[in-house]
Write a structure and sequence with these properties.
The protein is mainly α.
C-alpha cells in the first residue's frame, strides 16, 4: 500500500492508518456484536469501513484522488432535482437527452470552458477538444 505514496511522509501515512484502525476499533466497542442477532446499521458500516480501508484512505496514497466525492455528487444532483420537480422523465429518450446535455455542460465546466461559447461551437458544427 505504501508504494503508492507520493506526497506525505511515510510515517504520517502510517500514523493516519493506525488512527483509522483505532477509530474502527472504538466503533466496534461502542456497537458490540450480539450473538445470534442481525448486525445493526452501525456494525454493517464499521464492517465496510474496515474491509475497505485501503479504498477509504486512497487519497493518502495517490495525489490525484480527491479527499471527498463532492464533484461526482454535484454532477448527479441536477438530475435528481429534475426528477423530483417533474416526478420522472416522460420518456427514456428524454432522460438520455438530459443526461447527454448535462454531461456536456459538466465536462465544459471541469475543463474551464465557457458553456455558452461551447454550445455555440457545437451548434455551428465544430468540435471541441477536451484535454
Amino acid at each position: 500500500l505504501l508504494e503508492y505514496y507520493k506526497h506525505l511522509p511515510r510515517d504520517k501515512v502510517q500514523e493516519f492508518g493506525q488512527r483509522y484502525q483505532t477509530i474502527i476499533e472504538e466503533g466496534y466497542l461502542a456497537n458490540p456484536l450480539k450473538a445470534h442477532e442481525k448486525n445493526t446499521d452501525p456494525v454493517r458500516l464499521l464492517n465496510r469501513l474496515s474491509k475497505r480501508q485501503e479504498e477509504v484512505l486512497e487519497f493518502l496514497y495517490q495525489v490525484e484522488v480527491p479527499f471527498d466525492n463532492n464533484l461526482a455528487e454535484r454532477d448527479v444532483r441536477m438530475t435528481k432535482t429534475k426528477q423530483k420537480i417533474s416526478g420522472c422523465f416522460r420518456t427514456e429518450k428524454g432522460a438520455h437527452c438530459f443526461a447527454r446535455i448535462r454531461g456536456f455542460i459538466s465536462t465544459c465546466q471541469k475543463q474551464g470552458l465557457t458553456i455558452i461559447e461551447s454550445i455555440e461551437t457545437i451548434l455551428r458544427g465544430n468540435t471541441i477538444q477536451f484535454s
